[in-house]
């Protein structure tokens, strides 16, 4: 999706139509559309020809985009879970693994990257009461595998605001919730994790529109992506006019929430009250 979005921007900046781009790689305009939406794999020759057409002559820029295009065509580890991953979520898993900054606001639940195994299992069962036991365990395994990025030698910067209601909602029962809060207390000590809590008394705050995730990628080579999950799908926004608006919302949330240094004491208080 990111490589496709970058190719689209380059094409539009050069004033090249999809038909002209398609002719340059001996294909139809519909293939250009699929490439730009990230719905088909990339051939190195096609990307190289498009970069030439779009006037990209800088060797470093060409090499970066060609390398990313090659990586985009290699199946990621998460594709082994394709039996339990909806198509609209597959793209997010790749973006999440590639991000250097992940900022998120959650209202209903503890974010997936911070969930314990039992809490994740309870959330998954809440969302799909018809799901079978083996499918539940596959989904839990996927969620736990996603969390490995937090323990990498060069992990992304994770900055999360969680609504207090999500921390007081007894998902899975009191024992599961206590273990989840204890896990958050430990995670909040990680140097690359910033955890803030939006208290109940913060009425009418900037996150009233619902959960938000913003992904930023290394070296500014690719645009930020805003991910907005819905009941049966998701929106991926990558145009600067759109992403800048959500960055502003996230910045406001960081100001309106309790400051990071208060997270541990708030979590300890909630833990005693469960």
Q: What does the overall shape look like?
A: elongated
- Rg on CA atoms, Å: 21 Å
Amount of helix = 40-55%
Kindly give the count of domains. 2
Describe this structure in words.
The protein is an alpha/beta fold and 274 residues long. It folds into 2 domains: 2-72, 434 Repressor (Amino-terminal Domain) (Orthogonal Bundle); 77-273, Endonuclease, Chain A, CATH 3.30.870. The chain is 50% helix and 13% strand. The protein has 12 helices and 6 strands. The protein has helices at residues 2-14, 18-24, 29-36, 44-53, 59-72, 87-98, 117-127, 133-146, 164-168, 174-187, 240-256, 263-273, and strands at residues 101-106, 157-163, 193-198, 212-216, 225-230, 233-237. The chain has a 6-stranded mixed β-sheet with strand order 3-2-1-4-5-6, sandwiched between helices. It is elongated, with a radius of gyration of 21 Å. The termini are far apart.
Summed up, what is this model?
The protein has 274 residues and is α/β, with parallel strands linked by helices. It contains twelve helices and six strands. 50% of the residues lie in helices and 13% in strands.
Essential attributes:
274 residues; alpha/beta; 434 Repressor (Amino-terminal Domain); Endonuclease, Chain A; 2 domains; 6-stranded mixed β-sheet; 12 helices; 6 strands; 50% helix; 13% strand; elongated
Structural topology:
Layout: H1 2-14, H2 18-24, H3 29-36, H4 44-53, H5 59-72, H6 87-98, E1 101-106, H7 117-127, H8 133-146, E2 157-163, H9 164-168, H10 174-187, E3 193-198, E4 212-216, E5 225-230, E6 233-237, H11 240-256, H12 263-273
Parallel strand pairs: 1-2, 2-3
Antiparallel strand pairs: 1-4, 4-5, 5-6
